[in-house]
Amino acid sequence: MSTRGADRLCRWLGVLGVVVLFAGSVQAEPLARTFNLRMSAHDLQRAGNSLPIWIDISLRENILRIHWGDVVTDELPIATGSSATPTPVGTFRVLDMQEEPIWQSPFYPDVTYRGGDRRNPLGARWIEFKQAGVNAYGIHGTSDPASIGRAVTNGCIRLHNDDVAYLFEQVEEGTPIVIH
After folding, report:
1. Residues designated catalytic
2. Residue ranges per domain, the chain?
3. What's 53-179's CATH class?
4. 164 burial level (CB within 10 Å; 0-12, 13-18, 19+)
C-alpha cells in the first residue's frame, strides 16, 4: 500500500473513532485487507450515517478536499483554469458522471478521442458540475499528469487518473461542490 493509501486508512480509522498505532514493522495494507477497511465517505453515508458528502475546491491551493460532514476525508492535488480560461467560482452540484468519457475539442469539433485513448485529455472519469451553453465544466482525469498543481486548464478541474477514479466512487449526482 502506498503512503497515500496508508494515510487514507489512518484518516478513516480516526474518523471512525479507532486509535491507530503503527510500529515501524506494521504495514497498513495487510491490516486493511484483514479488516476489509476500504471505506469511503459514500460507504459510510450508505450505511446509515446522515452526514453529507461534499467537495471543497481551493483554487489558490490547487487542492480538492472531500468532506464527510465537517471532516476532511481526503485531499487531492488538482490543476485549475488558466487566467485566460478561469475555473468558475461558486456553489455547484454534480450534474453528470461518466466512466471513460469521450472528448470533443471545443475548438475543432471534428477532433474527438474515445474513452481509454491515451490522448483523451479527460482521462478516466468525468464529473460534470456546470453547463455553459454547448460547453461544460467538470472534474476529470488527465493525459498530462505534469499539469497537476498548476493553473493551465480551460476551466475544468484536473486530477491524476487514479485520484479521479477514487473521487468518482465517493460522489453521486447532486453532491455539492464549493469552488473558491
Report:
1. 140, 156
2. 1-39, 53-179
3. mainly beta
4. buried
